[in-house]
Design a protein that fits this description.
This protein has three domains: 5-138, Rossmann fold (3-Layer(aba) Sandwich), CATH 3.40.50; 155-256, Beta-Lactamase (2-Layer Sandwich); 326-409. Strands 2-1-3-4-5 form a five-stranded parallel sheet, with helices on both faces. A five-stranded antiparallel sheet has the order 7-6-10-9-8, with helices on both faces. It starts with a helix and ends with a helix. It is built from eleven helices and ten strands. It has 419 residues and is of the alpha/beta class.
Length: 419
């Protein structure tokens, strides 16, 4: 177990422990080993320290059972701010209920008390080195992406499989060749090969890259429209993740046509001419400025008079235009007043009509109320008559039954005594 003292001296530690004896013992050693140590008496203070200094803190060491805020809640709060900082728990017991939660929130280590100082220091070193390597890898990846972006903007880039069929091209390849990505992907790279190029060159190229070496040289290519262009090419093999077998080939090419060189020379000439022109313009401006200083006020009299005459003529035209627009404005004002008058009359007319409508509405409402009262009164009378008719009907039915009974008795009587 080897300690890298130089590396440890670059680290800042947050240490949270409520037990004064344990806190004093461990923090005394931590202060000697690490660059800086923030010491918290409980979880709440530890979380406050992290919120304030999280950009400095490289690792957190904390007890689990603490007042005000326990270690688990402190860990949750820290993970809301930083989900990667290494976190080490110290505990005197096997607190199984905390263990699963600690794993969920990414605790790096779970150390039992009394704390083994060497174990803690080694764990901190290991965790921070892992974190450092991840940070370095991310930085290198971003740097590589930046380099790739630069290459994509300045070079013609393509990738092929082992048979030379294109699997990737950048925008510059398409722009120079005149083909779209859809036209190139899946086609053999010789789609841009110029017929004038010697087959020996391509034979040498393929032999070189199949041996795992880089090939560099000048190639003549042809665009989709049949126009020739020259490139300085660098073609090299790409290996699998174990660096054992070649799986593809990458080509990075730079345009070097004679026309391009001529354009570069012409652009340089233009830039020189622009510089010279700016110099001459500056000299002329300085000379004009100097001449203006030498001219007296008298020399400007004719110019002033001429300008005055022009101004007077312009003023007359402006006055004429102003009068024309004044007449237009007056006409518009008159029309506006007429419209306002008509609108006002219409407004009062509508008000009057509205009053009449309100009156008719009140009268109609009163009539409706009276009709409703009359209907209600008649309804009550109808219900009353209905009840009377129903009672009379019942009486009639009863009388009918009595009459029928009497008639039956009379018929029997006549049958007995009539004879």
């Amino acid at each position: 177990m080897n300690f890298d003292q130089n590396f440890l001296k670059t680290l800042t530690v947050l240490y949270a422990e409520d037990d004064e004896h344990a806190r004093t013992s461990l923090s005394t050693i931590l202060l000697k080993i690490f660059h800086k140590v923030y010491i918290a008496h409980d979880g709440r203070q530890g979380l406050e320290y992290f919120k304030k200094f999280h950009n400095e803190i490289d690792v957190v060491i904390s007890d689990i059972n603490m007042p005000h805020l326990n270690g688990m809640d402190m860990l949750k709060g820290i993970r809301e701010i930083d989900d990667k900082v290494p976190f080490i728990f110290t505990t005197a017991h096997q607190e199984n209920e905390f263990l699963l939660g600690a794993i969920k929130y990414g605790v790096y280590h779970y150390a039992k008390k009394p704390v083994d100082i060497k174990e803690i220091i080694y764990t901190v070193q290991e965790a921070c080195q892992v974190q450092y390597q991840q940070t370095l890898a991310n930085h290198n990846y971003k740097e590589a992406q930046a380099y790739l972006n630069v290459i994509n903007q300045t070079a013609i880039v393509s990738k092929t499989d082992l048979l030379g069929d294109i699997t990737y091209v950048n925008d510059m390849f398409c722009g120079i060749s005149g083909y779209t990505q859809e036209e190139l992907i899946g086609r053999n790279h010789n789609i841009v090969k110029d017929p004038d190029t010697s087959s020996e060159i391509y034979k040498e190229l393929w032999e070189t890259i199949r041996e795992g070496k880089k090939w560099s040289g000048k190639l003549k290519n042809r665009t989709k429209d049949g126009e020739a262009y020259f490139v300085t090419a660098n073609i090299f093999p790409l290996y699998d993740e174990f660096d054992n077998e070649i799986i593809a080939y990458m080509a990075i090419e730079f345009l070097t046509t004679d026309e391009e060189n001529e354009k570069r020379g012409y652009k340089t000439h233009i830039r020189q001419m622009l510089v010279e022109q700016k110099r001459i313009e500056k000299e002329l401006k300085d000379e004009v400025k100097s001449l203006k200083k030498k001219l007296g006020d008298a020399q400007y009299i004719d110019i002033i008079q001429e300008n005055s005459s022009k101004t007077s003529s312009q003023n007359k035209k402006l006055l004429k235009q102003m009068k024309f627009y004044e007449e237009k404005i007056k006409a518009f004002e008159k029309e506006k007043l007429e419209i306002q008058k008509t609108a006002k009359e219409q407004y009062f007319k509508v008000l009057e009509q509205n009053k009449e409508l309100q009156h008719y509405k009140k009268v109609a409402t009163k009539k409706i109320e009276e009709l409703e009262m009359l209907i209600e009164k008649q309804s009550r009378e109808i219900f009353k008559l209905t009840d009377q008719i129903s009672s009379q009907a019942n009486i009639i039915i009863d009388l009918k039954d009595v009459i029928e009974h009497r008639e039956s008795q009379l018929a029997k009587y006549q049958e007995i005594h009539g004879k």
